[in-house]
Amino acid sequence: MTIRVLLADDQELLRMGFRMILTQEPGIEVVGEAGNGEEAIALASSCDPHVVLMDVRMPVVDGIEATRQIVSDNPAVRVLVLTTFDLDAYAFGALRAGASGFLLKDVPPAELVAGIRAVASGDAVVSPRITRRLLDEFAPLLEPPGHRELAQGASAMAKLTDREQEVLVAVAEGLSNAEIAGRLFVSEATVKSHVGRILAKLGLRDRVQAVVFAFQTGIVRPQGRP
Fold first, then answer.
1. Hey, is 85 helix, strand or coil?
2. Strands 28-34 and 51-55
3. How far is CA 207 from the centre of its chain?
4. Does residue 10 contact residue 55 with C-beta atoms inside 8 Å?
5. Suppose 139 and one of 44, 82, 213, 222 were both cysteines; which one would form an S-S bond, judging by CB atoms 3.0 to 4.6 Å apart?
6. Helix (H, G, I), strand (E, B) or coil at 155
7. Is residue 154 part of a domain?
């Protein structure tokens, strides 16, 4: 399958550089370029991309709102956010809006290509550990979960078996499959199966979204917050 990529960045030179890298890769096709978030939203509908490479700091509509609308309108589209800093409030906002990960703008070409292939295949580029650090770092920006969010979290946990609940909490703590396997005394393959069932039952796209969901619904709390 050819991976269809939409480039969204207000810097034409940067888009040109990404296009040059990606057009040399087999199985990847750049299907459109957007110079602002409004264009990105429109092109995400008309160009039918698998992956949107999204700058978060753009004019007209920023990348966070564009991500939210694209993911809402096209749930199958994966958004890979471009940012300048690995612990960035914009990246944090984009993950909450539905992005499947983020990359630094100066990412080496091989990592850029690997990231696009990863999200296109259903994986998340950002490790849950980094997502956890982001959420802890920007915890002051999070409203404590209210009654609705807590009820949503309780309802979600009720759909899971006891072991799946343990795995979800461990994922939200930033543990890898190997670390979870060691904690629960099971194989990595078993953990991977549990994670797949958790995502399916809760309607989540990937591990990053599982971490965000666990925070937003009070299943886990930011460090330092009761």
1. coil
2. unpaired
3. 8
4. yes
5. 222
6. helix
7. yes
The answer to the question of residue 193 being in a domain is: yes
For 29-85, the pLDDT digits (tens) are: 999 999 999 999 999 999 999 999 999 888 899 999 999 999 999 988 999 988 877
Q: Based on the fold, state whether residues 58 and 166 are members of the same structural domain.
A: no
In angstroms, the CA 137 to CA 219 distance is 18
Range of the domain at 173: 140-216
Report pLDDT for 211: 83
Q: How many residues does the chain have?
A: 226
Give phi and psi for 71, each to the nearest 5. Answer: -65, -35
Do 171 and 196 form a contact (C-beta atoms < 8 A)? no
Same domain, 39 and 80: yes
Both structure tokens of 59: 């004019």
Q: For the chain, which residues score pLDDT lower than 70? A: 86-87, 124-129, 131-132, 135, 138-144, 223-226
Q: Which two tokens stand for residue 224?
A: 């330092």
Tokens of residue 32, six digits: 């459109």
Quick one: 110 and 20 in the same domain? Answer: yes
Rounded (5°) CA angle 6-54-208: 110
132 occurs within a structural domain: no
CATH number for the domain that contains residue 177: 1.10.10.10
Residue 104 and residue 16 in one domain: yes
Tell me the HSE value of 59 on the side-chain side, using a 13 A CA sphere. Answer: 3
**CA dist 41 to 79, 170, 207, 209, Å?**
11, 34, 24, 21
Instruction: Let me know if residue 63 belongs to a domain.
Output: yes
